[in-house]
Amino acid sequence: MTYQTGESGSPQMPVCPRHPDRISYVRCQRCGRPACPECQRPAAVGVQCVDCVREAQASVRPTQTVLGGRYRSGRPVVTITIIALCVLVYLTQRFTPDVLQQLAFAPSSGDEEPWRFLTAAFLHAGWLHLAVNMYALWIVGSVLEPALGRWRFVAMFLLSALGGSTAVLLLADPAGLSWVTSVVGASGAVFGLFAAIFLVLRRFGRDATQILVLFAINFAIGFIYPGISWQAHLGGAVVGALLGLAYVYAPKERRTTLSVAGTASMAMLLLVLVALRYATV
């Protein structure tokens, strides 16, 4: 048995480096240092200390999905968070009606209060409106989020929402009622996700008929029933499709570069369109 030797030359008991008050005769198979029971981790042969286990885990490259997203087990955290935020905002609306007036988007207010372009996506006109959008978000998000990864999924949701509001602005008549009519709901963002998941299915040779039919039915409803903004649906779908092309069809070796470039370019394009529209009113 090897012991540490002090300045006086007398042997010292082996102690755990992380817990110097604990004597340990068990050593890490990787670094050879003593490890107390709290710092021991089972290994293929013997045990390893927590520091060596952490170092080994850091050196392992994260597993990726076929679309480059980081593989994560468990529930889609981002999707659940967005749903929770929408539900929380809706409950706030019920007790504080002014929230709807302060955060809803209308072309007439977007110039001076640009945050409305995004905040409107977290507002809903009623519980049925909320339930339908959240159900669709859950169905699509639980598939897209793991496939794309969290940051690309967040970017697609937010930019599709922004695209929906931008389309409402571009297609509104400054001299008409549409210029002062408020729109709310996550439908624009959800339509963007629908467009993206259609591309994912097509990319891997899967049958996308059901998604296409569902998309067409929901888009047509915007023309049939009053009070539904088909403009937001259209804008969100266009943005989702364009981002989907960058995310889904990018070559593996250039996937990250093209994803970042596509996201930045889309954000810049929408900002330019908004600025030009307000400049010409």
Automatic annotation (TrEMBL):
Its main location: membrane. Keywords: Hydrolase, Membrane, Protease, Transmembrane, Transmembrane helix. GO terms for molecular function: peptidase activity. It comes from Georgenia halophila. Belongs to the peptidase S54 family. This is Rhomboid family intramembrane serine protease. It is a multi-pass membrane protein. It comes from the Bacteria. Pfam families: Rhomboid. GO terms for biological process: proteolysis. Gene3D superfamilies: Rhomboid-like. InterPro entries: Peptidase_S54_rhomboid_dom (IPR022764), Rhomboid-like_sf (IPR035952), Rhomboid_protease_S54 (IPR050925). The chain crosses the membrane at residues 77-95, 115-141, 153-172, 178-201, 208-226, 232-250, 257-279. The keyword DNA-binding does not apply. It is found in: Membrane. The keyword Ubl conjugation does not apply. Residues 112-248 form the Peptidase S54 rhomboid domain.
